């Protein structure tokens, strides 16, 4: 079983290596992530927002040698996409908050401007680029729990991630000349800080409906003793420590995906595929992020199986050389 951490802990030792006491999982952000060194450090904040009309993705990242930022919008009714991406050398103009849930993360460059402000009351997201603007509030409900996990590949290569699923969201999305009020839906945070191997593949799936959220990961955690799998019921986290089996068709990403384990019997049925490909020779990436509906069931801590009907979200495969 994975170890639950309940008190604040440093992610790194003074020499920049992973502190063994940091390996485990949390229900709220407790890791102090003072990364040291240069070249392999990866820092990012990703927010995914799902509403009845739109799906939105916002990312601010610093990969040391570059800042990679983006605003993505899918109109679920028409299938139209807006993608505004920026790659900024040496991550100039990028500010990353030092702790999940506290501080300001911002990026300016390449035609993209993003500012994410967080405190104990929640998060504020302002993002703009040509033809698109997002202004939303993501409050933190009392007692709401998130999944924090440290994944240890070695003393020099490790990742701290916070996956926060099913947060309420409200505000406005401006697309072209249309202003859309956001009053229903949910937001998901992916907060990452770590020192990564050069080449890595991962799976990630997240989805929610009122009172229920799911968070699944795969491939990148295999063999580390850590997983990023959880069920969130009425805001309370239930950890799933099994490594899950992912089955999907890489020749047809819109065919149903299967995610299974001792406590997970899930099918994911996509309705849209987002493809993001970058190739800067030494640095390259390919992500297939599919949006869709979850069906099946997940077993809670009390042994009761919960069905996932009406849970909507995404499942993805990402391959990176970075």
Quick take:
With about 325 residues, this protein is mostly beta strands. It has strands at about 10, 25, 30, 40-50, 55-60, 65-75, 80-90, 95, 105-110, 110-120, 120-130, 130-140, 145-150, 160-165, 170-175, 180, 185-195, 200-210, 210-220, 230-235, 235-240, 245, 255-260, 265-280, 285-300, 305, 310-320. The protein is about 0% helix and about 60% strand.
Using brief descriptors, characterize the structure shown.
322 residues, mainly beta, ten-stranded antiparallel sheet, eight-stranded antiparallel sheet, 27 strands
Description:
By secondary structure, the protein is mainly beta. 0% of the residues lie in helices and 61% in strands. The chain has no helices and 27 strands. It is globular, with a radius of gyration of 18 Å. The mean pLDDT is 96. The strands form four sheets. Strands 18, 19, 20, 21, 22, 23, 24, 25, 26 and 27 form a ten-stranded antiparallel β-sheet that branches. An eight-stranded antiparallel β-sheet has the order 2-13-14-17-4-5-6-7, with no helix packed on it. A seven-stranded antiparallel β-sheet has the order 8-9-10-11-12-15-16, with no helix packed on it.
Number of DSSP E strands: 27
In percent terms, what proportion of residues is strand? over 45%
Low-confidence stretches: none
| Shape summary | globular
Structural class, by secondary structure, is: mainly beta
Number of helices: 0
């Amino acid at each position: 079983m994975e170890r639950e951490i309940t008190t604040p802990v440093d992610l790194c030792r003074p020499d920049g290596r992973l502190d063994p006491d940091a390996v485990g999982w949390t229900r709220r952000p407790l890791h102090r992530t003072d990364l040291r060194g240069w070249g392999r450090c990866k820092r990012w904040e990703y927010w995914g927002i799902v509403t009845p009309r739109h799906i939105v993705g916002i990312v601010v990242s610093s990969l040391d040698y570059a800042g990679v930022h983006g605003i993505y919008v899918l109109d679920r009714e028409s299938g139209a996409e807006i993608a505004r991406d920026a790659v900024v050398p040496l991550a100039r103009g990028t500010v990353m908050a030092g702790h999940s849930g506290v501080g300001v993360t911002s990026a300016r460059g390449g035609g993209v401007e993003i500012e994410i402000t967080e405190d104990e009351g929640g998060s504020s997201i302002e993002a703009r680029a040509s033809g698109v603007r997002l202004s939303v509030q993501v409050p933190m409900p009392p007692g709401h729990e998130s999944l924090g996990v440290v994944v240890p590949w070695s003393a020099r290569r490790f990742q701290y991630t916070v996956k926060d699923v099913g947060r309420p969201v409200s505000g406005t999305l401006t697309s072209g000349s249309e202003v859309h009020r956001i009053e229903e839906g949910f937001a998901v945070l992916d907060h990452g800080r770590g020192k990564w191997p050069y080449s890595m593949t991962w799976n990630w799936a997240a989805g929610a409906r009122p009172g229920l959220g799911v968070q699944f990961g795969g491939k990148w955690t295999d063999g580390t003793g850590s997983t990023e799998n959880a069920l969130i019921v009425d805001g309370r986290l239930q950890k799933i420590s099994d490594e899950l089996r992912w089955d999907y068709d890489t020749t047809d990403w819109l065919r149903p995906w299967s995610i299974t384990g001792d406590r997970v019997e899930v099918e994911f049925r996509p309705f849209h595929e987002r493809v993001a490909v970058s190739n800067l020779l030494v640095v390259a990436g390919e992500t297939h992020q599919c949006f869709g509906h979850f069906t099946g069931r997940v077993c809670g801590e009390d042994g009761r199986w919960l069905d996932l009907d009406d849970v909507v979200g995404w499942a993805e495969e990402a391959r990176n050389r970075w």
